[in-house]
């Protein structure tokens, strides 16, 4: 296939073709996911938990994110690569955020992602105006897990939902080209996807989103312990890793994943 560009992602969004996104941390998986038709590879700071065994994403450094972004970029051929700006790397000033984003872009990212509501809008604007595509991230934002009081559903009551919708609008107006929403009610996920001009990619946010993302190791059934309800193990019924990833892409494109009864809030 031709390389996935921002223009292509906008076309897909306009045509209501669902966007399939998975986390990816190394070259081998980048090659496999790209070949299996995954549209967007997210070099997520979830690598702190998945690869490093940390209790949260808080300990992940910018050096580590740049290293994994470079690994993914080397293995990838056509997918759109998003690199997570880690904890503390964009909080201090616009200039700090720019320097951090430049590191990831030079490592091979096509877009950077950062977490947080209204306070990040000026940062998003600063980066966007300087030619760096930005993905925002609302809902359960893991870098704030301690402030949020744990891994709990966000935007549940009417006031919280209204505030999230306002933040989402501000981020899109500031130039964000994509929005990830994590662990929110399916109805709110659909509302956000319907009212925003940019693709909204959900994880535990219902089938009404413009696309879906999962942590690779979760959807391959490799993660031990209790998994969130929004995860589906795509190795079940697949006889190879490649087939499992293809099944994920197919289920997302067909609107068959997530199933809001089984995987929704
Ligand atoms: O780091 C990550 O894996 C993420 C996704 C859960 C969206 O940010
Ligand atoms: Na992340």
UniProtKB/TrEMBL annotation:
It is an enzyme of class 2 (transferase). This is 3-methyl-2-oxobutanoate hydroxymethyltransferase. It comes from Aquincola tertiaricarbonis. Its EC number is 2.1.2.11. It is found in: Cytoplasm. Its main location: cytoplasm. Mg(2+) binds at residues 45, 84, 115. Binds 1 Mg(2+) ion per subunit.
């Amino acid at each position: 296939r031709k390389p996935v560009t921002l223009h292509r992602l906008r076309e897909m969004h306009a045509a209501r073709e669902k966007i399939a996104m998975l986390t990816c941390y190394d070259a081998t998986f980048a090659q496999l996911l790209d070949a299996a038709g995954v549209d967007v590879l997210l070099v997520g700071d979830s690598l702190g938990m998945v690869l490093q065994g940390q209790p949260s994403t808080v300990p992940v450094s910018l050096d580590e994110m740049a290293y994994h972004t470079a690994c993914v970029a080397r293995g990838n051929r056509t997918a759109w690569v998003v690199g997570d700006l880690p904890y503390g790397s964009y909080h201090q000033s616009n200039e700090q955020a720019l320097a951090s984003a430049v590191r990831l872009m030079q490592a091979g990212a096509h877009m950077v992602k950062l977490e947080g509501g209204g306070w990040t809008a000026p940062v998003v604007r600063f980066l966007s105006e300087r030619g760096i595509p930005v993905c925002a991230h609302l809902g359960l934002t893991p870098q704030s897990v301690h402030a949020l009081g744990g891994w709990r559903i966000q935007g549940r009551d009417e006031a919280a939902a209204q505030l999230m919708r306002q933040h989402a609008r501000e981020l899109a107006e500031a130039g964000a080209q994509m929005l990830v929403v994590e662990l929110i009610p399916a109805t709110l996920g659909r509302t956000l996807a319907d009212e925003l001009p940019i693709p909204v990619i959900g994880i535990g946010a219902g089938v009404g989103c413009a696309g879906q993302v999962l942590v690779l190791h979760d959807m391959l059934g490799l993660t031990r312990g209790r998994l969130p309800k929004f995860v589906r193990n795509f190795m079940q019924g697949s006889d190879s890793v490649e087939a499992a990833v293809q099944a994920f892409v197919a289920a997302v494109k067909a609107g068959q994943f997530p199933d809001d009864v089984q995987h929704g809030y």
